[in-house]
Design a protein that fits this description.
Blueprint: E1 4-8, H1 14-31, H2 42-53, E2 59-66, E3 69-79, E4 91-99, H3 108-122, E5 127-130, H4 137-145
Length: 161
Amino acid sequence: MDSLVIRRAVAEDIETIGQLWEQLVEHHTHLDTRLPESVANGGRRYARRLYDTLRDDYARLLVADVNGKVIGYVLGMIVDLSPDMFEQETSGFLADIFVAPEQRRTGAGRALVLELARWFRERGVQYYEWHVAARNADALAFWESVGGEAVMVRMRASVNE
């Protein structure tokens, strides 16, 4: 029987997370060609940036581990609004989440989100937000199932004639 564990990422996980990030980008560009592709070695560059999050008190990098293998991850951070313009609310941002395709619908994604939400709550965060690709119907359904609702819609227009 497979054993799912959600835990903080460690340095040994970073390379795998970079590979998962490449799959995430590929998945998004497959859904919508308007979304940016990864540059050569983009996953490695992403992974290098993650090392700092391991020691950052305002960021949390979690992995979904099944029998010792990292099959998914989530990256969240605590953010501030511009204090000179907005009343301050402690809020969070879920920057990235990905679960390997063969491990979807196993509860791993939900478990990652719930653990990140617990971490946010412990730090006084009132809410957290994220971006989701408009053409990703599965992701939209997932986010609604964990209580997500649209607050702002990001739109794009071409400047070409």
